[in-house]
Specification:
Order of helices and strands: HHHHHHHH
Number of strands: 0
Distance between the termini: 54 Å
Shape: flat
Length: 218
């Protein structure tokens, strides 16, 4: 028998006497009168555990030591991005990540986060030293290039996600109007695939940027 989450068990104990007669009256009696509330919460918990394990594996592979510290942010942004990508599949709703304001907001959060972690790990001066290159004699040349390169990561995170989702949604609407039979279902399936891929790439890039920010110089 499937393990029942404590919250679901509590609700069933409190509400079974009310819900079971009500569901029976409207013609949908529960399979178990003592448990009228299905254990969907536990299924959701299992799904989230799979997501957490996946993010932990990604973080451990790319960041290495102490990677669990960053799992919460990686997972939160990843779930937010994938849900925002998929939202456009619901009729009358748009894809939030098809708007640059949303993707830029995600990129700013990621940018501030990995730079903060770099400063936290090395200290402010130690983190700035990362941008100076291996030789202090060429630091005046390397430092501005590295700072600009770091700032351009905002574009890497925001514009790539925005462009992919905006163009994908645009093509979906165009082809659905041109060929309304069969093609919409195919485009929706492609939308789902791209949504997960783009969320994965966003997490992947953030994990790489964190690993670079907290890396020790050798």
């Amino acid at each position: 028998m499937e393990h029942e989450l404590w919250f679901t068990a509590l609700l069933n104990k409190l509400l079974a006497g009310l819900l079971t007669p009500l569901l029976t009256t409207i013609g949908v009696p529960p399979q178990d009168p003592s448990q009228p509330i299905p254990n969907y919460i536990a299924k959701f918990q299992h799904l989230m555990e799979v997501v957490v394990e996946f993010v932990q594996g990604l973080a451990e592979e790319l960041i290495g030591h102490d990677s669990r510290r960053y799992v919460a942010m990686l997972g939160t942004l990843g779930v937010f991005v994938v849900l925002s990508n998929l939202l456009g599949l619901i009729p009358t709703l748009e894809t939030p990540t098809g708007h640059i304001q949303v993707t830029l907001g995600c990129a700013v959060v990621a940018f501030v986060y990995y730079n903060f972690q770099g400063i936290r790990h090395h200290g402010l001066l130690g983190y700035l030293r990362h941008f100076c290159g291996p030789m202090l004699i060429i630091a005046p040349l390397i430092f501005p290039v590295e700072i600009i390169s770091n700032a351009f990561r905002l574009l890497s995170l925001s514009v790539r996600l925005y462009a992919n989702m905006f163009v994908g949604e645009l093509l979906e609407h165009v082809f659905a109007r041109l060929i309304p039979i069969g093609v919409p279902a195919t485009m929706m399936a492609l939308h789902v695939f791209v949504s997960f891929i783009q969320a994965y790439i966003f997490m992947l890039l953030l994990a790489v940027y964190i690993s670079l920010a907290v890396a020790e110089e050798h």
